Amino acid sequence: MNPDNPLPEAIHGGSRFLRACLRQPVDCTPVWFLRQAGRYMQEYREVRKHHSLVEICKQPDLAAEVTIAAAEKLDVDAAIIFADLLLPLEPMGLDFDFLDGKGPVVQHPVRTVEDVRTLHTDRADELAYVARAIEKVAAHFRDCLGIIGFCGAPYTLASYMIEGGGSRDFIHTKQMMYAKPAAWHLLLDKIVAVLEEYCRLQVEAGAEVIQIFDSWVGSLALEDYRDYAFEASKRLVRSVQQLGVPVIYFGVETTGLLTQMAATGADVIGLDWRQPLDEGWRAVGPDHAVQGNLDPITLFAPLDVLEQRVQEILRAANGRPGHIFNLGHGVVPGTPVENVQAVVRMVREFRLEQANG
Ligand code: CP3
Predict the structure, then answer these.
(1) Is the distance from CB of 31 to CB of 17 less than 8 angstroms?
(2) Which residues of the chain have pLDDT under 50?
(3) What is the pLDDT of residue 13?
(4) Which terminus of the chain is less hemmed in, N or C, by CB atoms within 10 Å?
(5) What pLDDT is stored for residue 351 in this prediction?
């Protein structure tokens, strides 16, 4: 057992995935994929013919089915619960829709301190349907696969609430940050309060690891991350760890932010593909595990190119405990499923080649 590790002893031993999160030696690098259940997969499209995205999330049988089908089809080491980043907006009092081709749209974006004040923080239990789905997935996989719960990071969720959807320049978000810091910090406090409770529900239901998605944090300068987003992320990371599970903290275009992101104390830092994995790991530091970092569009490349990239990543990790193989961002629609399956085989065979060589 690693004496530096603050997590309870009960967690040790677990799946290959869980062990890698804790930087313990594994027989083979664990692998899973961000957005592994989604439109690129026939099974998911079938379910989507009859149900909206939010319906799937809210019906534990369906959410569990979609989660399990993807994990089994890909033969990965971890299953991430099928849900969406935006679900906590609803119990906070914000309605949203997913419009085809446009992504999420929030009906009444948060723009003023009054808007922030009216947000609820005491209704996270309305998200219990996610916990029910996790229970079903955990019962199905028992101890053979890692079970991942997730939530958005405070900055990324705040950006959806303020912009009213996805954004390129984050103008309204940064305006609130700079011009109304009291409203901004109150908003982040409220988001953290809801997410703490939401993560607690997920962990009690059987989530063994929580991934915090700070997908749009790369829009921030280092100084702004430090002054406006870091503290709230750190608080969330620490409270989730208090529940006794490791945290994966993930962002995109984070090359300049990695050292500061690691200072949240997250056990694992998710790396995008813009930097070689060993350089990213150096920025994160040896006392954190890393997850990543294949460019998701490499999955459209010929198999020999794909294999070369997969091997480069594994060579950069160099067998050090604490690497989880993943993409640098989510699987995109249209990705050939057989290439995703091929990556799993490549990761597993790479270890065998090394052992035999
Ligand atoms: O296996 C899995 O990982 C799927 C579960 C999952 C979904 N959303 C389902 C979903 C997860 C982990 C998410 C997280 C999520 N949601 C993030 C963070 C991950 C990331 O990619 O950075 C973000 C930013 C969102 C918000 C969101 N939800 C967007 C921007 C979109 C639209 C994307 C698009 O291409 O249209 C969604 C919709 C969504 N959430 C889909 C899925 C499978 C696709 C749309 C659908 O099925 O209708």
Answers:
(1) no
(2) 1-12, 352, 355-357
(3) 57
(4) C
(5) 61
Q: Return d(Cα 230, Cα 264) in angstroms, integer.
A: 7
Distance (angstroms) between ligand 1 centre and the Cα of 350 equals 30
| pLDDT recorded at residue 353 | 55
CB-based burial, 56-87: b 16+ in 10 Å, e otherwise: bbbebebbbbbbbbbbebbebbbbbbbbbbbb
Is 113 in contact with 186 (CB distance < 8 Å)?
A: yes
DSSP 14-74: --HHHHHHTT---SS--B--TT-SSTTSHHHHHHHHHS-HHHHHH-HHHHHHHHHHHHHHH
Rounded distance from Cα 24 to ligand 1 centre (Å): 30
**Residue 162, helix vs strand vs coil:** helix
**Which residues are bridge partners to 290 per DSSP?**
269, 323
Q: Which of these is catalytic: 16, 19, 35, 200? A: 35
Distance from the alpha carbon of residue 33 to the mean position of ligand 1, in angstroms: 13
**Which of 93, 108, 78, 92 minimizes the C-alpha distance to 18?**
78
Strands (E), the chain: 78-80, 96-99, 103-106, 146-152, 209-214, 247-251, 268-270, 289-294, 323-327
Residue 350 in tokens: 């790479």
Q: What is the C-alpha separation between 65 and 48, in angstroms, rounded?
A: 12
CA torsion sign for 234, 240, 245, 251 is negative
Place of tokens 């679900």: 87
Report pLDDT for 143: 80
Looking up tokens 């690098």 gives 29
Which of 160, 198, 225, 249 is flagged as catalytic? 160
- Measure the CA dihedral 190/196/198/204, to 10°: -160
What is the distance between the alpha carbons of residues 58 and 95, in angstroms, rounded to a whole number? 15
3-state secondary structure of 231: helix
What secondary structure letter does DSSP report for 214? E
318 prior amide bond cis, ω within 30? no
d(CA 306, CA 322): 23
Q: What three-state secondary structure class fits 24?
A: coil
Radius of gyration of the chain (CA): 19
Q: At 293, give phi and psi (nearest 5°).
A: -145, 50
């062990």: which residue's tokens?
Answer: 19
